[in-house]
Amino acid sequence: MNIGDRLRKIRTEQNLSAKKLSEESGVPEKTIYRIETGEVKDPKLSSLEPLIKTLNCSADELLFDIDEFTGLAKLRQIFAKATELNDYDFDLLVTLVNKFLLASSIEREISDAMRDGRA
Length: 119
Description:
Radius of gyration: 19 Å
Largest sheet: none
Mean pLDDT: 89
CATH topology of the largest domain: 434 Repressor (Amino-terminal Domain)
Number of helices: 7
Structural class: mainly alpha
CATH architecture of the largest domain: Orthogonal Bundle
């Protein structure tokens, strides 16, 4: 997968049209299309930086074909958007995530204990 394919994938996963991405990033829509179609194979940093910021993705995710970043990138995008929440909702989200992680940990411990015959 090349940089254009990755840009299109990230953009479409966020339900953004090239026009909307252009409006939010300041990068011309034509430049976005040229990158996505492969016409521009080595885009300028001055184009990539605002795209990365607008898409809330890492440079690694956009520039390199590294599958390990996919799950973390999605979480990073979600939490970047969460900073727009009011304080109460943000605290509630943090509490929910912490409770989910605790429940997941307990479930894993019980499962391991049952598998090992400790329960």
